[in-house]
What we know:
Layout: E1 24-31, H1 35-39, E2 43-47, E3 52-56, E4 62-68, E5 71-79, E6 82-90, E7 96-102, E8 106-112, E9 125-130, E10 136-140, E11 146-152, E12 156-161, E13 168-172
Parallel strand pairs: 1-7
Antiparallel strand pairs: 1-4, 2-3, 2-5, 5-6, 8-11, 9-10, 9-12, 12-13
Amino acid sequence: ELTSTIDPTNLPAGGIEIGLERGARITGRVLGLTPEERRWRTRLQLTDGNRSTLTFLRLDGTFQIDHVEPGTWDLRVFTEGREGATTVVMPPGQAEVSVDVEMAPTCTVAGQVLDALAGPIGGAEVYVSDEDGTVNILVSTRADGSFALHLPDGNFEIRINKKGFHTAELELH
């Protein structure tokens, strides 16, 4: 932050020069995503507590955030039910910093929603949540009643809803 005092009795003021620094660039990769997950709209949020920038992951698993000011930044990655984070330090005068964000491994949970006569129920909503509310996933079953999710290690509650049917709930460990 620069300050300057102007004497109001000596106007117009002249000779003031203001130099702006170019913002730096953060580039990197998000590791540990499946090819399917890279096709989802994976968000990256860069914040320092006061300012925030949002961008999206490219299909090849890379990202670029431009116009970053010097300082310490938190970089968080959000995708369906998964999150990754790292701290990025942008030194003054540096043009670019490259980082990798590692996502926690997941397991594929797949199933099928059936009616009482073992007929498939397409379009049922499968809602998954964890104990502390950080995982919140909503998917719909396909026409054959099937669904697939990628979940990190943990305990989850799965709730399945479809208009005209009773809600089903189960716990998954």
